[in-house]
Amino acid sequence: MANILDQLKEVTFAIIPLALVVIVLQFTVIGLPSDVFISFLAGVVLVGIGLFLFLVGVHIGLLPIGELIGSSLPKIKKSWLIIGVGFFLGLVVTIAEPDVRVLAFQVDQVSGGRISNDLLVYTVAFGVAIFVALAMVKILYNLNFIHLLIGGYTLIFILALFTPPNFIPISFDAGGVTTGPMTVPFILALGVGVASVVRRADSKQTSDGFGFVALASIGPVLAIMILGVIFG
Protein backbone atom coordinates (compact mmCIF):
# COMPACT_ATOMS: atom_id res chain seq x y z
CA MET A 1 0.00 0.00 0.00
CA ALA A 2 2.84 2.38 0.86
CA ASN A 3 4.44 1.78 -2.54
CA ILE A 4 1.19 2.58 -4.32
CA LEU A 5 0.83 5.83 -2.38
CA ASP A 6 4.44 6.73 -3.23
CA GLN A 7 3.75 6.15 -6.93
CA LEU A 8 0.58 8.24 -6.73
CA LYS A 9 2.56 11.05 -5.11
CA GLU A 10 5.30 10.72 -7.75
CA VAL A 11 2.80 10.99 -10.62
CA THR A 12 1.01 13.91 -8.99
CA PHE A 13 4.19 15.94 -8.50
CA ALA A 14 5.30 15.10 -12.05
CA ILE A 15 2.11 16.32 -13.73
CA ILE A 16 0.95 19.24 -11.56
CA PRO A 17 3.80 21.66 -12.50
CA LEU A 18 3.10 21.25 -16.22
CA ALA A 19 -0.64 21.63 -15.70
CA LEU A 20 -0.16 24.77 -13.59
CA VAL A 21 2.13 26.38 -16.18
CA VAL A 22 -0.40 25.78 -18.96
CA ILE A 23 -3.27 27.06 -16.78
CA VAL A 24 -1.35 30.25 -15.94
CA LEU A 25 -0.47 30.77 -19.63
CA GLN A 26 -4.09 30.15 -20.58
CA PHE A 27 -5.34 33.03 -18.46
CA THR A 28 -2.42 35.39 -19.12
CA VAL A 29 -0.95 34.87 -22.59
CA ILE A 30 -2.38 32.09 -24.74
CA GLY A 31 -6.15 32.28 -24.35
CA LEU A 32 -7.01 28.99 -26.03
CA PRO A 33 -10.64 28.27 -26.96
CA SER A 34 -12.62 26.84 -24.05
CA ASP A 35 -13.17 23.43 -25.68
CA VAL A 36 -9.42 23.02 -26.32
CA PHE A 37 -8.57 24.01 -22.75
CA ILE A 38 -11.16 21.61 -21.32
CA SER A 39 -9.74 18.85 -23.54
CA PHE A 40 -6.30 19.63 -22.12
CA LEU A 41 -7.55 19.31 -18.53
CA ALA A 42 -9.29 16.03 -19.36
CA GLY A 43 -6.09 14.82 -21.01
CA VAL A 44 -4.04 15.70 -17.92
CA VAL A 45 -6.38 13.63 -15.76
CA LEU A 46 -6.28 10.67 -18.15
CA VAL A 47 -2.48 10.86 -18.48
CA GLY A 48 -2.17 10.95 -14.68
CA ILE A 49 -4.38 7.89 -14.27
CA GLY A 50 -2.57 6.04 -17.07
CA LEU A 51 0.89 6.90 -15.77
CA PHE A 52 -0.05 5.85 -12.24
CA LEU A 53 -1.40 2.50 -13.44
CA PHE A 54 1.66 2.03 -15.64
CA LEU A 55 4.08 2.64 -12.75
CA VAL A 56 2.15 0.23 -10.54
CA GLY A 57 2.37 -2.36 -13.33
CA VAL A 58 6.11 -1.76 -13.73
CA HIS A 59 6.79 -2.30 -10.04
CA ILE A 60 4.46 -5.30 -9.76
CA GLY A 61 5.40 -7.06 -12.98
CA LEU A 62 8.17 -5.69 -15.20
CA LEU A 63 10.92 -5.08 -12.65
CA PRO A 64 10.56 -8.39 -10.78
CA ILE A 65 10.24 -10.51 -13.92
CA GLY A 66 13.14 -8.72 -15.62
CA GLU A 67 15.43 -9.31 -12.66
CA LEU A 68 14.20 -12.90 -12.27
CA ILE A 69 14.89 -13.68 -15.94
CA GLY A 70 18.29 -12.00 -15.67
CA SER A 71 19.27 -14.00 -12.57
CA SER A 72 18.01 -17.27 -14.10
CA LEU A 73 19.74 -16.98 -17.49
CA PRO A 74 23.36 -17.51 -16.29
CA LYS A 75 22.31 -20.81 -14.67
CA ILE A 76 21.81 -22.20 -18.18
CA LYS A 77 25.60 -21.93 -18.67
CA LYS A 78 25.24 -21.55 -22.42
CA SER A 79 26.59 -18.19 -23.51
CA TRP A 80 25.00 -18.28 -26.96
CA LEU A 81 21.57 -18.87 -25.46
CA ILE A 82 21.96 -16.06 -22.90
CA ILE A 83 23.03 -13.66 -25.66
CA GLY A 84 20.17 -14.83 -27.89
CA VAL A 85 17.58 -14.34 -25.15
CA GLY A 86 19.01 -10.87 -24.51
CA PHE A 87 18.61 -10.07 -28.22
CA PHE A 88 15.03 -11.32 -28.32
CA LEU A 89 13.99 -9.49 -25.14
CA GLY A 90 15.58 -6.27 -26.39
CA LEU A 91 13.64 -6.66 -29.62
CA VAL A 92 10.18 -7.28 -28.16
CA VAL A 93 10.40 -4.75 -25.32
CA THR A 94 11.37 -2.01 -27.82
CA ILE A 95 8.49 -2.91 -30.14
CA ALA A 96 6.20 -2.45 -27.12
CA GLU A 97 7.77 0.93 -26.20
CA PRO A 98 5.16 3.71 -26.64
CA ASP A 99 7.81 6.42 -27.19
CA VAL A 100 9.12 4.55 -30.24
CA ARG A 101 5.59 4.37 -31.63
CA VAL A 102 5.17 8.13 -31.25
CA LEU A 103 8.44 8.83 -33.10
CA ALA A 104 7.56 6.34 -35.85
CA PHE A 105 4.13 7.93 -36.33
CA GLN A 106 5.65 11.42 -36.63
CA VAL A 107 8.34 10.30 -39.09
CA ASP A 108 5.72 8.44 -41.15
CA GLN A 109 3.65 11.63 -41.38
CA VAL A 110 6.56 13.94 -42.19
CA SER A 111 8.01 11.59 -44.82
CA GLY A 112 4.63 11.09 -46.46
CA GLY A 113 4.76 7.35 -45.81
CA ARG A 114 8.18 6.90 -47.45
CA ILE A 115 9.54 5.72 -44.11
CA SER A 116 6.63 3.71 -42.76
CA ASN A 117 5.64 3.38 -39.14
CA ASP A 118 6.46 -0.33 -38.99
CA LEU A 119 9.80 0.06 -40.78
CA LEU A 120 11.04 2.60 -38.25
CA VAL A 121 9.77 0.63 -35.24
CA TYR A 122 11.46 -2.60 -36.34
CA THR A 123 14.66 -0.83 -37.36
CA VAL A 124 14.93 0.79 -33.92
CA ALA A 125 14.01 -2.50 -32.24
CA PHE A 126 16.75 -4.42 -34.08
CA GLY A 127 19.28 -1.74 -33.16
CA VAL A 128 18.38 -2.02 -29.48
CA ALA A 129 18.32 -5.82 -29.61
CA ILE A 130 21.82 -6.06 -31.09
CA PHE A 131 23.28 -3.82 -28.40
CA VAL A 132 21.40 -5.55 -25.56
CA ALA A 133 23.00 -8.76 -26.84
CA LEU A 134 26.35 -6.93 -26.86
CA ALA A 135 25.70 -5.86 -23.25
CA MET A 136 25.20 -9.54 -22.38
CA VAL A 137 28.54 -10.31 -24.03
CA LYS A 138 30.10 -7.52 -21.98
CA ILE A 139 28.92 -9.06 -18.69
CA LEU A 140 29.70 -12.67 -19.64
CA TYR A 141 33.22 -11.94 -20.86
CA ASN A 142 33.95 -8.97 -18.58
CA LEU A 143 34.58 -6.55 -21.44
CA ASN A 144 35.52 -2.95 -20.72
CA PHE A 145 32.40 -0.78 -20.75
CA ILE A 146 34.32 2.39 -21.67
CA HIS A 147 35.83 0.71 -24.72
CA LEU A 148 32.39 -0.40 -25.92
CA LEU A 149 30.98 3.12 -25.55
CA ILE A 150 33.94 4.71 -27.32
CA GLY A 151 33.71 2.15 -30.12
CA GLY A 152 29.95 2.65 -30.49
CA TYR A 153 30.12 6.44 -30.66
CA THR A 154 33.12 6.31 -32.99
CA LEU A 155 30.98 4.26 -35.38
CA ILE A 156 28.19 6.83 -35.02
CA PHE A 157 30.47 9.75 -35.90
CA ILE A 158 31.97 7.89 -38.86
CA LEU A 159 28.58 6.80 -40.18
CA ALA A 160 27.23 10.35 -39.75
CA LEU A 161 29.60 11.45 -42.52
CA PHE A 162 27.69 9.26 -45.00
CA THR A 163 24.18 9.74 -43.63
CA PRO A 164 21.75 12.20 -45.30
CA PRO A 165 21.40 15.29 -43.05
CA ASN A 166 17.65 14.80 -42.50
CA PHE A 167 18.25 11.34 -41.00
CA ILE A 168 20.80 12.44 -38.39
CA PRO A 169 18.35 14.19 -36.02
CA ILE A 170 15.88 11.30 -36.42
CA SER A 171 18.60 8.81 -35.48
CA PHE A 172 19.50 10.63 -32.27
CA ASP A 173 15.82 11.01 -31.39
CA ALA A 174 15.52 7.24 -31.91
CA GLY A 175 18.28 6.77 -29.34
CA GLY A 176 16.36 8.99 -26.93
CA VAL A 177 12.96 7.33 -27.26
CA THR A 178 14.42 3.93 -26.38
CA THR A 179 15.00 5.29 -22.87
CA GLY A 180 11.25 5.27 -22.37
CA PRO A 181 9.10 3.87 -19.54
CA MET A 182 8.81 0.37 -21.00
CA THR A 183 12.37 -0.30 -22.15
CA VAL A 184 14.43 1.18 -19.31
CA PRO A 185 12.90 -0.66 -16.31
CA PHE A 186 13.02 -4.03 -18.04
CA ILE A 187 16.52 -3.71 -19.49
CA LEU A 188 17.97 -2.37 -16.22
CA ALA A 189 16.35 -5.15 -14.21
CA LEU A 190 17.58 -7.72 -16.73
CA GLY A 191 21.15 -6.40 -16.57
CA VAL A 192 21.25 -6.26 -12.77
CA GLY A 193 19.81 -9.78 -12.60
CA VAL A 194 22.45 -11.25 -14.94
CA ALA A 195 25.30 -9.38 -13.27
CA SER A 196 24.18 -10.43 -9.77
CA VAL A 197 24.70 -14.09 -10.71
CA VAL A 198 27.71 -13.84 -13.03
CA ARG A 199 29.62 -11.58 -10.62
CA ARG A 200 28.35 -13.17 -7.41
CA ALA A 201 31.91 -13.85 -6.29
CA ASP A 202 32.44 -10.11 -6.04
CA SER A 203 29.33 -8.27 -4.86
CA LYS A 204 30.76 -4.94 -5.98
CA GLN A 205 30.67 -6.09 -9.59
CA THR A 206 26.85 -6.28 -9.69
CA SER A 207 27.17 -2.70 -10.93
CA ASP A 208 28.11 -4.37 -14.24
CA GLY A 209 24.36 -4.61 -14.81
CA PHE A 210 24.23 -0.85 -15.23
CA GLY A 211 25.18 0.68 -18.55
CA PHE A 212 22.74 -1.54 -20.46
CA VAL A 213 20.61 1.47 -21.35
CA ALA A 214 23.63 3.49 -22.49
CA LEU A 215 24.70 0.67 -24.81
CA ALA A 216 21.14 -0.01 -25.98
CA SER A 217 20.74 3.66 -26.95
CA ILE A 218 23.66 3.42 -29.39
CA GLY A 219 21.94 0.68 -31.41
CA PRO A 220 18.97 2.65 -32.74
CA VAL A 221 21.17 5.64 -33.65
CA LEU A 222 23.34 3.39 -35.83
CA ALA A 223 20.32 1.53 -37.20
CA ILE A 224 18.52 4.70 -38.34
CA MET A 225 21.73 6.07 -39.86
CA ILE A 226 22.13 2.86 -41.86
CA LEU A 227 18.47 3.18 -42.90
CA GLY A 228 19.25 6.74 -44.00
CA VAL A 229 22.19 5.57 -46.10
CA ILE A 230 19.94 2.97 -47.77
CA PHE A 231 17.06 5.38 -48.41
CA GLY A 232 19.34 8.32 -49.20
Keywords:
mainly alpha; 80% helix
Unreliably modeled segments? none
**What Rg is obtained from the alpha carbons, in whole angstroms?**
20 Å
Give the overall form.
Answer: globular
Main β-sheet description = none
In helices, the fraction of residues equals over 70%
> What's the N-to-C terminus distance?
54 Å
> What's the pLDDT, averaged over the residues?
83
Query: What is the beta-strand fraction?
Result: under 5%
Which class of secondary structure composition applies to the elements? mainly alpha
Secondary-structure element series: HHHHHHHHH
User: How many strands appear in the DSSP assignment?
Assistant: 0
Number of helices: 9
Secondary-structure blueprint:
Elements: H1 2-30, H2 34-72, H3 79-95, H4 98-110, H5 117-140, H6 145-160, H7 167-177, H8 183-198, H9 212-231
Outline:
The protein has 232 residues and is an all-alpha fold. It has helices at residues 2-30, 34-72, 79-95, 98-110, 117-140, 145-160, 167-177, 183-198, 212-231.
What does this molecule look like?
- This protein is mainly α and 232 residues long.
- It has nine helices and no strands.
- It is globular.
- The mean pLDDT is 83.
